[in-house]
Fold this protein.
Amino acid sequence: MNVWRAAADLARRGASGALATVARTRGSTPVPAGVKMLVGPSGRLVGTVGGGCVEADVIRAGLEAQQAGEPAIVTHTLNADLAGDLGLSCGGTVDVFVEPLVPDAAYIRVLEAAAGAESGLVTTATDWHDGPEKSFAALPESAAPADSATLTQDRRFVIERLAPAPRVVVFGAGHVGAAIARAAHAAGFRIVLVDDRPEFADPERFPDIIVCAGAVDEALARYPLRPADAVVIATRGHREDALIVERVAPSAAGYVGLLGSRRKKLVVTKGLAAAGVSREALERVRVPVGLEIGAVTPEEIAVSVVAELIGWRRKKEQGARSRT
């Protein structure tokens, strides 16, 4: 669920709630800056800021902020015992900005803008004595390599950079492809599911996923591959797989995975190499796709594939943060 949209809905109804954002971290902490949690009268509704004592304190602060009508900054230091409880190797400090949801039209517009944007900049004042101060500005995707938040040095503003989740193009809407698409969507990826069979590429089967009924060339024309994209190939046969690998292996996609065995990789890559596809392009195709967990069922295979996609995504985000 989109935490921004859920917050906007609560604020529009005038319901009690608060929005918590990890605004700054130092040392080892359970979550990075930028993650959010929506709090209601009964506690956490959407998202998380790390669980354990941190989350309990933030929920309490959220309820207090709602009653007072004023935001607050909760600073939590993870000592060695607490760090151990959270599975951390060492302690750290986290600053969480907690803001009450208010039925203010301008405030709600910012929440809605953030909910519908793929990228942007949200700036929120930490002092609301003169009313809530929150703004949204659009940004090009390249300016926001990963979701993040910053508490300014003077602690007067929380600045959040919103970035689109990586897109995963799944070729094949059969049992396994469908399971991978649904699992990747649940993990927060944007999905394009492609199949040349209209009865499989049926939007009614996938109400929350973009579905493309067509051949590989048509799909790539509509959705050109970029370095931030991943491709998973799970079609019904070697011929279709080979055709798609031929098109996507040399592409700009940052991740290309093919469902199948190592023997399948040898068969497919041998034929494509003979057809002129470069060795460098073929070597970056991950076959078999997914982590080796002994997966058998479509759902188990989906877990292994999405786990590998998550690892790829987080490494990219960590690299982007280290360069900023």
Q: What stands out?
A: Residues 3-162 form one domain. DSSP finds ten helices and 15 strands in the chain. Confidence is low (pLDDT under 50) at residues 80-89. The two ends are 29 Å apart (CA to CA).
